[in-house]
Amino acid sequence: MRTARAKGLSELRVLFRHVLKNAMIPILTGVVVVIPLLFMGSLLTESFFGIPGLGSYTIDAINAQDFSVVRAMVFLGSMLYIAGLVLTDISYTIVDPRVRLQ
Question: I need a surface site. Which of 47, 68, 82, 87 has the fewest CB within 10 A?
Fold first, then answer.
């Protein structure tokens, strides 16, 4: 950052080119961790407040021992998690040039 400022780059350019790219790596990692928590939060919120949705549908399927629905919801949750991982890997290559293929 000191070198970029010494070269005469504007403060916004320094912040977006140098600071933001380095700060995005832990933020992107944290986003992937939150995806399963959002899915579980919908299960709890919808069942607690009686909101019709995938969360309450899943809880009803667990109580009724409808394993095909439970299996489908686990599959959907895992696909969302894998999609989040793939998007995170793609965004790592955009943010951090050290991750790119050589």
Answer: 68
